[in-house]
Amino acid sequence: MLDEKSLKAKLLRSEIERARKLLSQLVDLRFNKIAQTTIKKDSIPPNSLSREEEQAYKNSIEIVKLRETLIKNLFEGKEAEAALKPKEDKLERILVRFTREMPAIVGTDMKSYGPFKAEDIATLPLQNAEALLRQGVAIRIEASK
Fold first, then answer.
1. CATH for 93-140, options being 3.40.5.50, 3.90.550.10, 3.90.1150.10, 3.30.360.10
2. Angle of the 51-75 helix axis to the 7-39 helix axis, nearest 10
3. First to last CA, the chain
């Protein structure tokens, strides 16, 4: 609780603002590097990226592919809109039964799932389901047709 007009408060605000600018510049540099690497079609070791950066990298790869598809379609005389149509959701999902309570999670498809109670059944994206299976929080269910 500092007096807003005190020298200490002014210095603290100035320091916070500098830190905010530095953080913004750092994020910008990393995202620019991701974009440049994608354009050059180089790869980035996955363990060198945060989850958010990894998602940005995957998105940038999709953008480059979309660009190439657009150029190809235009060159072949096809409609440009064909390249822009969203692809069908090819995300594999797994049916699981929860063995204990679990808070809500955000799936790899960026959708929210849960919260879950013991014995709840859910269909989850493959990567999320596998992580829960490894942790012993859920058991895979084979659905019969």
1. 3.40.5.50
2. 40
3. 64
pTM score: 0.46
- Is 131 buried (19+), middle (13-18) or exposed (0-12) by CB count in 10 A? middle
Which amino acid, one-letter code, is at 103? P
List, for residues 34-51, the tens digit of each pLDDT value: 888 888 888 888 788 888
Task: Please report, as a single letter, which amino acid is at residue 20.
Answer: R
pLDDT at 138: 95
> What are the boundaries of each domain within the chain?
7-84, 93-140
Alpha-carbon distance of 134 to 71, in angstroms, equals: 43
Is 91:125 a contact under the CB 8 Å cutoff? yes
In tens, the pLDDT along 47-75 reads: 888 888 888 888 888 888 888 888 888 88
CA 124 to chain centroid: 16
> Which pair of structure tokens corresponds to residue 114?
């849960």
50 is written with which tokens?
A: 């945060």
Cis peptide before 115 (omega within 30 of 0): yes
